[in-house]
Design goal:
Elements (H helix, E strand, L loop, with lengths): L17 E3 L5 E3 L3 E2 L2 E2 L8 E4 L5 H11 L3 E6 L20 H6 L3 E5 L5 H11 L4 E4 L5 H4 L4 H7 L4 E6 L14 H7 L2 H4 L14 H24 L4 E5 H6 L5 H8 L16 E5 L5 E5 L3 H10 L14 H6 L1 H12 L4 H10 L4 E3 L3 H6 L1 H6 L2 E6 L3 E6 L23 H6 L5 H9 L4
Parallel strand pairs: 5-6, 5-8, 6-7, 8-9, 9-10
Antiparallel strand pairs: 1-2, 3-4, 11-12, 12-13, 14-15
């Protein structure tokens, strides 16, 4: 068994230097593309992504952010539907796609046709990871199931993201992030108790499943270093949601307690809430620990509250949560937000303003850490977006380019598996690429 060779130094154009994968077979492993070098801790890994919309592609984004060479296969006629998503589309460009498609090379192939499937197999044969998020059985119908692919590439890690997982009575059902959020328990506890179950303002079910899928992929690669063999990573959206639901299950099983919607607070965790300010904004204050509450009591000019038996302990504060929140709000509403923040900083009380993009872009901490990065876009000019997280001290990832135009890298990538210009023209004429 061999491990991937160190990446070649970047050159001015696409590199097709060969490296060995962990199963010992050679694979093309470009360290540069037309957009620039890959970089990052996953440099040298080849990922083929055949998913669409969010759960699979977000997994691909995370791997690409960390330096993997992500080859995204899309349908030639329309591409990933995410290219059309988003409330704002300046110059007919999806801002959502500019993020989820970043650091990827777009290749168009018709996977419903045998020749398109053959070309996909040629790319997957040289890949470390395959990411897909179709309904279970789809890849098998296309001749791209794991059993067939591992004959070509025994070291392949196949990441499969779906609504309900690859087996079980619900596996064949269509599953979206919203369904997983409902089934995994999140929707029931989100919102105000006076309203029906609510949703988060983002596609949290899809992104959680993608994050678990990414963890699974990296774990499978680590195991491959030992065994030389790939495996399937099965990430179900509803299970990913359940995975972050804390003690929801044993609370019911052992005590019969059912968590309910509680709005801006967690029951019995006090004080920890958003509080009004004089200028109409809000400040989040989290001072539920005994020592921290003492500092908050001093900050609001009532240090005696820290020793008052009604508020002196975690349990007592929880029992009087509404009463205590009202007491704190009576003080905060007399303060401007900047004045209040200075006071909380002085007394080392954990707090945070409620940020929107306008506050994020102006905030000195965001700026100092480059939490938001600026990426050149061929149509929109400079686009600001979230940077790569987490950060690594030596080999952190980068945003090398935004989501590319459909098929922008088809010729480049297919050339790596022997498709010349003449054949590519024929494929395009027949709607296969």
């Amino acid at each position: 068994m061999t491990t991937p060779a160190p990446p070649r130094s970047a050159g001015p154009s696409t590199s097709t230097a060969d490296t060995d994968r962990a199963d010992g077979t050679p694979g093309a492993d470009p360290t540069t593309s037309a957009e620039g070098t890959t970089g990052g801790p996953l440099q040298g890994l080849r990922v083929v992504e055949v998913g669409q919309l969010l759960a699979g592609p977000f997994c691909g984004q995370l791997l690409g952010d960390l330096g993997a060479d992500v080859v995204k296969i899309e349908d030639p006629s329309r591409g990933d539907p995410l290219r059309m998503w988003g409330r704002q589309r300046p110059k007919d460009q999806s801002l959502w796609w500019s993020i989820v498609g970043r650091n990827k090379r777009s290749v168009t192939l018709n996977l419903r046709e045998p020749e398109g499937q053959d070309l996909a197999r040629a790319l997957i044969a040289e890949a470390d990871i395959l990411v897909e998020n179709f309904r279970p059985g789809t890849m098998e119908r296309w001749g791209l199931g794991y059993e067939a692919l591992r004959e070509l590439n025994p070291g392949l890690v196949m990441v499969r993201v779906s609504g309900f997982g690859q087996d079980g009575p619900y596996a064949a059902r269509p599953g979206y992030g919203a369904i997983g959020e409902a089934m995994g328990g999140l929707r029931y506890v989100v919102g105000d108790p006076s309203t029906p179950p609510s949703r988060m303002g983002i596609s949290i079910g899809d992104t959680l499943a993608a994050m678990f899928a990414t963890i699974g992929a990296l774990a499978a690669l680590r195991e491959r270093d030992v065994s030389g063999r790939g495996q399937i990573v099965d990430s179900a959206i509803y299970e990913a949601v359940l995975g972050v639901m804390e003690s929801l299950i044993p609370e019911w099983q052992l005590t019969g307690y059912q968590r309910e919607r509680t709005g801006a607070v967690l029951p019995n965790i006090a004080p920890s809430n958003i509080y009004p300010t004089r200028d109409g904004t809000w400040m989040l204050i989290a001072a539920n620990q005994d020592t921290v509450f003492g500092r908050l009591a001093a900050a609001i000019g009532q240090p005696e509250l820290a020793t008052d038996e009604r508020y002196a302990t975690h349990v007592a504060r929880g029992d009087r949560q509404v009463e205590l929140d009202n007491l704190i709000a009576e003080f905060t509403v007399t303060q401007g937000v900047e004045e209040l923040e200075a006071l909380l900083i002085e007394h080392a009380v954990p707090h945070g303003k409620i940020f929107r993009p306008v506050e994020m872009l102006a905030d000195p901490h965001f700026q100092a850490r480059e939490t938001i990065t600026t990426v050149p876009h061929p149509v929109l000019g400079d686009v600001q977006m979230q940077n790569v997280f987490p950060r690594l001290s030596r080999t952190t990832g980068t945003v090398r380019w935004p989501g590319p135009e459909l098929g922008a890298h088809t010729a480049e990538v297919l050339a790596e598996v022997g498709v010349d210009e003449t054949r590519l023209a024929q494929l395009r004429e027949r709607g296969l690429a």
